[in-house]
Description:
This protein is mainly α. Helix content is 67%, strand content 4%.
Amino acid sequence: MSSQVWQEFKTAEGRVYFYNTQTKESRWTKPEELMSPLEAALSKIPWKEFETPDGRKYWNNSTTGDSVWDMPDAYKAAIDEAEAVESAAAEAKAKAAEEEAELARKKEEKLFQNGWDDATEGFVKMLRSHGVDHTWTWEKVLKEAITDENWSLLNDAISRKATFDELVERTKQETLETAKETYEKRKNEFLKVLQSQSQIKSFSRWRSIKPLVQESPAYLNFEDDAESVFRGYIAELKKAEDEQQAKLRQESLAVMKEYFESETEGSIDVFSKWYDVKERMKHNEFLKSHSAVVKTLNMLDILTIFEDCMKEVEDSFFKERRDVKRAARWTERKNREQFISLLDELVENGKITADSTWTKVYPLFKDDSRFTDIVGQPGSSPLELFWDVVERLNKALRIQRDILLDLLEERKFKFTHKTTYEQFEAALSGDPRVSEIGEDVYKWTFERQHARTLRKLDEDRHQEERRLRRKVDALRSVIRHLEPPINVTSTWDDIKPRIQNFPEYEALDDANRLLAFEKQLARTKEHEHDLEDGERHSRERKHSRD
Length: 546
């Protein structure tokens, strides 16, 4: 796989360089991935081999600059190392070839363990002797094997083609299985090599680990996929470490949760502050005994657990408050129901009617526990509940009253201030709609209608008096503006002819006309008297000055 990443190219001048198709990197020196074992070994030492013009070899140290005619020991060791690697690779390849041969033999045996008859089995062996496998086509078989003496073991072309198709399918399946088995076996062998390397950690990189395993036969047999398997192995190590860390973290969280839960039974309540709790944690014996576990958590983890604990404490606190409020509401509702029951009893006994007032009924229940229990509690007050009952009674009465009034209207009965109760009752008799209406409703409706009629009569009288007063005032205004004006000696007979053509005069009868004149005459006399008094006072002041 690495050799496919690096590719060899030449410049226009013919100089060789190497290009990485993944990183886009170019370099003049051969990458380690493309080196032979000997080249890789020699690249690690500073000694390099050269030749003089006459063909004599010498070695130069690129670090120190020294040159020698004899092969340095480090150079010999590098060659020995490369030969050992190549030998191991050869052994690995030989072993792999043996394994492949054994697999091929087993594959061939398995191929013929499928119940073919003798003729078919002989035909299949003939095909196999020509190397037929799943890559062959029928046309190629006809070309290569039709002249074989065993071709006629099967009598017709259809049987031969069918047998060939079955052979191709079986060899294809066997090839896939063999390749899979070989891959898994080599993968497992390479994984064992990785597992044997204690230097490999979850953060290791392939570049640093490859030199440790590249000489092993397992690596050489699995070189192309070695890096991907290594990455998978590292991922498994990381996963195992993460799981271990997660397990340790859960244990630590459980310890802290146990501590906070124990504290909620004593020092932690809904009003606790994080600062105070944190200070107490420093001196807690339980946490000191689990310090190794607690140290794996940071302060944010501990704060999160504390917040969760506080949420449970708050939930419990508010639940208790809700329960108390719920119990209080239940008591309040029960008290209201009992007081309403008391009011209903008074209604049933006739103590409360549609005309009742609070001041009249209060003495009836002021000492009753059903009243004292509801006093002062939130919600509807006793007074509001009382007026609700009165309103309910009034509504029921109004419904029955409307039935009675509708019936009077149907019978064209005119209710006046002189109407008696007997007349009212007689006007409503004989109709089935009033059969269930009680006498108290009759009397209540009669009294209300009688009072309304009297009020209407009184209002009409006052309105008529106001209209008459305005007419009298209008005629007084006409008399006041006459020219020449009236004086204290004027009489009705003198004034009457002067005003009888005015509409204000026509709007009144004789008595009110005379009343208007008399009022205006009295006002004229008052005015004359005021003038005389003013002149007398003026003379007196003048006389006093003289």
